[in-house]
Amino acid sequence: MKKKLLAALAVLPLVALLAGCSGGAADASGSAASGDDKVVKIGVVGASDPYWAVYTKAAAAEGIKVEVVDFAVFEQPNPALSAGELDLNQFQHIVYLADYNVSSKQDLVPIGATAIYPLGLYSTKHKKVSEIKKGDTIAVPNDASNLARALLVLQSAKLVTLKDGGTIFSTLDDIDTGKSKVTVTALEASLTATSLPDVDGAVINNDFVEKAGLKFSDALAQDDPADPNSLPYVNVFAARAEDKDNPTYQKLVKIYQTTKAVQDGVLEVSGGSAELVQTPVADLVSSLAKVEKDTKAQK
């Protein structure tokens, strides 16, 4: 809920860049929402998911106008939030957020939990992991947090061996190539799914699974979102630090967490794979602080 060893192979579509600026400029205080008739802008990756329309209606019923701003890739919503072009974003887990804060010297904070999504290995050439042969190529996301998590998935599937046993900071350099079955290549996250015709498998973020015509049940392997050690991978609503106690934003989190039609929609879009959570904000903040500390130590 949050990444970067090889250069991304795609150029961000112009529409994604424009999306972060749609609907008017930020006010003088650096906030996208201003005035009595303010619209709260929430940046996401995957605004076409039907539950976002349900969510905006639920917010409107509570007197809050919400504009969901769509981005094509993960790298854009955090800078847009930091710049005041958004009021909130909701697309990342704590590890991703921590890496952004440390790398960009920002202080975005989690103000509410949404879900943990498993990260899965998919293939259009093989129906089970055992069919993958030595020397085959597997694509993984290239942002640092999802790259490390993908490598842990591959290690659990016995396709790679990581020299240090694997951590949330593992990189391609940590792969013991002599003991690993496959070759791993890192691509921009949105390209892992589209790379399937050219590779033997790919670890694909949930946002891109169905867009590639895949089903979540097609995963050959995945991590376990119910694992207690998965806290750093809880997806969150993020805000600027000065807005962490904003009552409107806190209410929007509650609407997301407690509106049954929204929660049902999240589950449906995830193919039933999401683990819906309402982790206390204090736990999210504590986890972020720890991961940021560990991330700084790795830099």
UniProtKB/TrEMBL annotation:
<keyword id="KW-0564">Palmitate</keyword>
<dbReference type="Pfam" id="PF03180">
    <property type="entry name" value="Lipoprotein_9"/>
</dbReference>
<feature type="signal peptide">
    <location>
        <begin position="1"/>
        <end position="25"/>
    </location>
</feature>
<keyword id="KW-0449">Lipoprotein</keyword>
<dbReference type="GO" id="GO:0016020">
    <property type="term" value="C:membrane"/>
</dbReference>
<keyword id="KW-0732">Signal</keyword>
<comment type="similarity">
    <text>Belongs to the NlpA lipoprotein family.</text>
</comment>
<dbReference type="InterPro" id="IPR004872">
    <property type="entry name" value="Lipoprotein_NlpA"/>
</dbReference>
<protein>
    <submittedName>
        <fullName>Methionine ABC transporter substrate-binding protein</fullName>
    </submittedName>
</protein>
<keyword id="KW-0472">Membrane</keyword>
